[in-house]
Amino acid sequence: MPRTYYVYILASQRNGTLYIGVTNNLERRIFEHKTKFNKGFTEKYNVSKLVYFEETNEIGEAIRREKQLKGWNREWKLVLIENANPNWHDLAAGWFSGVSGSSDPPD
Q1: Domains and CATH numbers, the chain
Q2: Strands 49-56 and 18-23
Q3: Most buried residue, 10, 21, 44, 100, by CB count within 10 Å?
């Protein structure tokens, strides 16, 4: 059975601080960000809203894409997010009951 890898973008808020990462378990990784399990950038800047992700079955492709996105200028990243998720909804909303930052406020 092929493994799935994810390249994802988190945001602190709409047009806020962005974080790009790669993982083989998106749900676990987003949970770690939302609960501030790992100390670092996302904890410091409160970056825990999943606003974009891509899937692939190739780890090399996932890493290549992560590096590519990290090399993009901010405007390109914002356009990528806006095209896929124009309202900047937290795509992980509802994944974890009782976890702070795991739902969107109403529009």
Answers
A1: 5-84 (3.40.1440.10)
A2: unpaired
A3: 10
Please identify which residue in the block is written with the tokens 């702070």.
Answer: 100
CB 90 within 8 A of CB 103: yes
Whether 49 contacts 57, CB under 8 Å: no
pTM (predicted TM-score) = 0.88
Cβ(49)–Cβ(15) below 8 Å: no
Instruction: Write the pLDDT tens digit of every residue in 50-88.
Output: 999 999 999 999 999 999 999 999 999 999 999 999 999
Cα(28)–Cα(36) distance, integer angstroms: 12
